[in-house]
């Protein structure tokens, strides 16, 4: 290809660098109709499963490296093509300053933008296993409303990456930035013409243009996995202990991350609505949203080996003014070069936190003993059923509607054996001065194994749309007194509850108090049937519980256990104790802590890895009831371990792809242990490890 090749019509030579599904419309540059939204009542079919593809939408060149790895690298290494769309030019102050060197006197936004693009090419080349200065295939992509963007592709065998630079300036005339583009009617921004870019002129973006561009890219590439940033970051008080830095005024994230995520979610909703109407079925994809500067505020959760691989690619992106990349813009974002990601007090690289924690899909069983899994596909709730008890294969997904939904659902089985599904809905996602709201929703079967009643909105525990946007994902438990208790994290980072009475009516929201905790609370019943809720704080594991069955759930004194790196797993033991299993910050292996007085943690020396740990009491291969642990290996594979003694070893899922998100565990007395996880092609798989031992 020539260095200045332009793709008239948008995608002509694209397949030579990345094999993707074609654009069914065959047209480019046509202004679509006004924004469409996914219909929460839609229950049509989904597109058939096809090849996997990961699409990432980030605000700046490096957001994926800091916040979305290690999963981006794992999918790329496994042969899943990766397309990363960078919304802004990353031009910032226009000063590309290397650590321990003087800041450039003159601002050069075009040069800094071009240097950061080169840094991304260096990082992805290394992730592909190539020399960092490998030459990319560069071209220009025509997009809706007449705008254009540079697109760069690189392949190494069956591994393929593509970068798309929209290059919207981080700040435009009148101090217009992405938050204004999202929320202020009529706001307009212009692009930066980066040094050495193939795009030689500036373009104008308004709110609908950016939504249409992102929706068009989704429709062209047909991703099966979408990575986004956090659309609703936590409130953050900035003080001496938590300096503001690059955060927004009142939130723990960059001002560009939030609207980028909101535009992405809105574009997904539009893509689903348009594809469903045009094709007769909804696109098949799953979504993972990642927190950003949150990583600085909470305990770090990546062990040394996983962190080392992550920062290697950040260092390649950062580059150095002494590197010979032969790019006139510069050889990377010099402020992030060398060991900066490890030495920075902000520690953004030291964690990877999902915005919507929880295992996906969420499994249950039906009356026939088949596994039933509930998840979110194409922003709608879906149900997969095992074709026959023990078959290990799911049938086609049944669309349950309800969207657009956050990607984590909770499922419980009530006293009448009916499945009750709870989720977090983007009830309004409009911007431009209009509504942006979130609510907890519930879907209940009318009878065991039967059809579902309509979705029921339960609102949120916080008053006002801004605070309600900070609500966490719901978790629930069915109690022995026939009540269902729902728990969510609040905007104040405490815990709230709502209870469904035996009559089926839901009571009001009630705040449970306590200190600040991370999202992803764990709820279990002890041997007596009392509810216990555990959540990860900055200092220790926090605890809420009932004194007796049917009583209120109240906050308990601090557990005095070591600081957790994330949500703890909780297992009720046969002797009445509850074991809490989690890693301490940056640890490789978890500990199992008994809740009784004087109990000592038991290290799991072989169960190494990272990320959330799941645990249930189940039946092991020998028929003995024991805690069963589920987690990810360092390379992102699912692994389980029977028992918590130090002489047991984990089993890794053979022949299964690395899960997208967090796998789930289904275990119970007298039933074989099963792992359910989502593959990169947006289909779930089942692994029954007991049958392999």
UniProtKB/TrEMBL annotation:
<dbReference type="InterPro" id="IPR024078">
    <property type="entry name" value="LmbE-like_dom_sf"/>
</dbReference>
<dbReference type="Pfam" id="PF02585">
    <property type="entry name" value="PIG-L"/>
</dbReference>
<keyword id="KW-0862">Zinc</keyword>
<dbReference type="InterPro" id="IPR003737">
    <property type="entry name" value="GlcNAc_PI_deacetylase-related"/>
</dbReference>
<protein>
    <submittedName>
        <fullName>Exo-alpha-sialidase</fullName>
    </submittedName>
</protein>
């Amino acid at each position: 290809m020539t260095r200045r090749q332009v793709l008239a019509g948008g995608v002509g030579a694209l397949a030579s660098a990345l094999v993707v599904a074609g654009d069914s419309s065959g047209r480019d540059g046509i202004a679509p109709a006004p924004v469409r939204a996914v219909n929460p009542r839609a229950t049509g079919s989904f597109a058939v499963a096809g090849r996997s593809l990961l699409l990432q939408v980030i605000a700046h060149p490096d957001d994926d490296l800091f916040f979305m790895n290690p999963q981006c690298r794992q999918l790329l290494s496994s042969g899943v093509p990766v397309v990363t769309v960078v919304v802004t030019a990353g031009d910032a102050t226009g000063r590309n300053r290397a650590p321990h060197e003087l800041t450039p006197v003159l601002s050069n936004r075009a040069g800094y933008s071009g240097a950061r693009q080169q840094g991304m090419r260096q990082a992805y080349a290394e992730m592909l296993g190539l020399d960092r200065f490998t030459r990319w295939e560069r071209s220009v992509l025509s997009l809706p409303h007449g705008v254009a963007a540079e697109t760069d592709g690189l392949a190494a065998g069956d591994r393929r990456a593509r970068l798309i630079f929209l290059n919207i300036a981080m700040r435009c005339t009148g101090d217009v930035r992405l938050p204004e583009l999202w929320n202020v009617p009529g706001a307009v921004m212009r692009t930066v013409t980066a040094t050495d870019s193939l795009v030689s002129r500036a373009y104008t973006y308004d709110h609908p243009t950016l939504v249409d561009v992102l929706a068009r890219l989704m429709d062209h590439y047909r991703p099966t996995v979408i990575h986004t940033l956090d659309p609703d970051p936590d409130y953050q008080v900035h003080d001496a202990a938590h300096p503001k830095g690059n955060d927004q005024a009142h939130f723990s994230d960059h001002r560009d991350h939030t609207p980028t995520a909101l535009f992405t979610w809105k574009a997904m909703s539009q893509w689903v609505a348009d594809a469903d109407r045009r094709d007769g079925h909804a696109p098949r994809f799953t979504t993972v949203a990642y927190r950003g500067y949150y990583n600085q505020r909470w305990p770090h959760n990546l062990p040394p080996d996983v962190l080392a691989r992550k920062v290697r690619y950040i260092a390649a992106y950062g580059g150095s003014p002494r590197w010979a990349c032969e790019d006139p813009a510069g050889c990377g974002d010099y402020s992030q070069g060398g060991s900066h990601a490890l030495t920075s007090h902000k520690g953004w690289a030291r964690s990877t936190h999902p915005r919507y924690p929880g295992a996906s899909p969420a499994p249950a069983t039906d009356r026939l003993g088949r596994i039933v899994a509930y998840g979110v596909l194409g922003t709608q709730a879906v149900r997969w059923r095992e074709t026959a008890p023990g078959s290990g294969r799911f049938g086609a997904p049944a669309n349950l509607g309800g969207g657009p939904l956050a990607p984590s659902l909770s499922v419980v089985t009530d006293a009448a054996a009916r499945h009750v599904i709870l989720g977090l809905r983007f009830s309004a996602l409009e911007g431009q001065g209009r509504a942006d709201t979130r609510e907890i929703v519930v879907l209940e079967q009318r009878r065991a194994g039967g059809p579902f009643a309509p979705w029921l909105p339960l609102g949120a525990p916080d008053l006002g749309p801004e605070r309600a946007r900070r609500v966490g994902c719901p978790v629930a438990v069915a109690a022995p007194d026939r009540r269902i208790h729902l728990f969510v994290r609040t905007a104040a980072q405490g815990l709230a509850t709502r209870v469904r009475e035996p009559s089926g009516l839901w009571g009001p929201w009630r705040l449970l108090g306590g200190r600040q905790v991370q999202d992803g609370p764990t709820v279990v019943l002890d041997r007596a049937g009392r509810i216990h809720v555990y959540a990860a704080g900055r200092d220790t594991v926090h605890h809420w519980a009932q004194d007796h069955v049917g009583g209120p759930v109240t906050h308990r004194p601090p557990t005095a256990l070591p600081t957790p790196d994330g949500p703890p797993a909780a297992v009720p033991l046969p002797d009445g104790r509850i074991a809490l299993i989690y890693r301490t910050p940056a640890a490789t292996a978890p500990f199992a802590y008994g809740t009784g007085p004087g109990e000592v943690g038991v290290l799991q020396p072989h169960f190494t890895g990272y990320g959330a740990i799941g645990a249930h009491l189940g039946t092991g291969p020998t028929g003995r009831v024991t805690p069963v642990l589920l987690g990810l290996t360092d390379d992102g594979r699912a692994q389980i371990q029977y028992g918590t003694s130090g002489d047991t070893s984990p089993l890794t899922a053979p022949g299964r792809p690395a899960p997208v998100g967090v796998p789930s565990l289904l275990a119970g007395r007298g039933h074989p242990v099963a792992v359910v996880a989502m593959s990169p092609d947006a289909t779930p798989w089942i692994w029954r490890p007991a049958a392999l031992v």
